[in-house]
């Protein structure tokens, strides 16, 4: 979709202090050294371990940091959207994680709800929902989207996405403003391959996707076209932290020089679910006014998303 004039004004993230090296993870899961090598070959270095801390609390920390760093008055936030990837990242009913975050952040006047079922693309889906909502309700001028997920204690083996990545625990908060001049959301495109609606196989492992590269490529290409720019106009590609070698192939398919891929956080952050491209947006320091960035994420159940931002 070609978007309304909202900007991604700021991003703040909260990652647990405890980090675990891939070699440690392999050892504590009783796996082979060959598995560690395969993960390292795909760009895996460390992941962040919440050690039982609640994802809701990580979300509160991320929002508090965002509000503090941007000096944003809580009373000016019109909407709060909570997103997550896995079902265990929310409080058990009848409790509401979104309400918990709202209350602990003091965002009392914000319209508050959750978006999920788009896996690691859920934050991008939340942006789309916000843009549609704001188009109907001009009084929505400012919003916060927060994503937060953790792999629960005792579920260490579930951190792995084959040999491609290890999940990190963490949260990320986005501040979106209507009418700002910089970091304008120029386009957003979502795609879901319905063949993978189950998400995993019977052993809770990802199902191999024989069309992954094509789906990822066409999703990003569609976002670039909707922004009315050429691939070579993209100055920064801000990826999810999955399969670093595969990104060389995708950059070639997009005809964007591989040097424009921001890969700094692959080995140090891990795959923080839907937060990856937004953490990269926050930490990529050489963005210049007038340049364009391409953010990408994909998830289980055949979900793909891309956003183009004009700085």
Automatic annotation (TrEMBL):
Q: Which domain of life is it from?
A: Bacteria
Q: Which GO terms describe its biological process?
A: secondary metabolite biosynthetic process
Acyltransferase keyword on record: yes
GO MF annotation: an example: acyltransferase activity
* Cited Gene3D superfamilies: 3.40.47.10
**This protein's UniProt keywords:** Acyltransferase, Transferase
Q: Which InterPro entries match?
A: ACP_syn_III_C, Thiolase-like
Name the record gives this protein: Putative 3-oxoacyl-[acyl-carrier-protein] synthase
Q: Please name the Pfam families in this protein's record.
A: ACP_syn_III_C
* Keyword Transferase belongs to the record: yes
What the entry lists under SUPFAM superfamilies is as follows: Thiolase-like
Q: Which residues form the Beta-ketoacyl-[acyl-carrier-protein] synthase III C-terminal domain?
A: 225-310
């Amino acid at each position: 979709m070609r978007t309304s004039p909202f900007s991604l004004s700021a991003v703040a993230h909260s990652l647990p202090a405890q980090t675990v090296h891939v070699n440690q993870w392999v050892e504590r899961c009783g796996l082979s050294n060959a598995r560690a090598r395969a993960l390292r070959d795909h760009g895996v270095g460390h992941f962040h371990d919440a050690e039982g801390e609640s994802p809701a609390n990580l979300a509160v920390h991320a929002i508090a940091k965002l509000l503090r760093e941007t000096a944003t008055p809580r009373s000016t936030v019109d909407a709060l959207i909570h997103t997550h990837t896995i079902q265990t990242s929310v409080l058990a009913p009848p409790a509401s994680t979104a309400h918990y975050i709202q209350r602990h952040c003091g965002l009392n006047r914000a319209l508050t709800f959750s978006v999920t079922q788009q896996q690691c693309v859920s934050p991008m889906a939340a942006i789309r929902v916000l843009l549609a909502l704001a188009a109907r309700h001009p009084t929505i001028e400012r919003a916060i989207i927060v994503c937060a997920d953790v792999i629960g204690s005792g579920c260490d083996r579930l951190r792995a996405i084959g040999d491609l990545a290890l999940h990190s625990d963490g949260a990320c908060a986005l501040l979106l403003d209507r009418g700002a001049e910089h970091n304008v959301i120029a386009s957003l495109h979502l795609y879901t391959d319905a063949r993978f609606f189950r998400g995993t196989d019977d052993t809770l492992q990802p199902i191999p996707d024989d069309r992954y590269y094509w789906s990822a490529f066409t999703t990003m290409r569609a976002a670039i076209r909707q922004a009315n720019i050429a691939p070579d106009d993209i100055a920064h590609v801000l990826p999810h932290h999955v399969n670093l070698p595969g990104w060389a192939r995708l950059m070639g398919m997009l005809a964007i020089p591989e040097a424009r891929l921001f890969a700094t956080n692959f080995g140090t952050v891990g795959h923080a679910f839907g937060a990856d491209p937004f953490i990269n947006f926050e930490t990529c320091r050489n963005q210049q006014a007038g340049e364009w960035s391409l953010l990408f994420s994909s998830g289980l159940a055949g979900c793909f998303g891309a956003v183009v931002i004009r700085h």
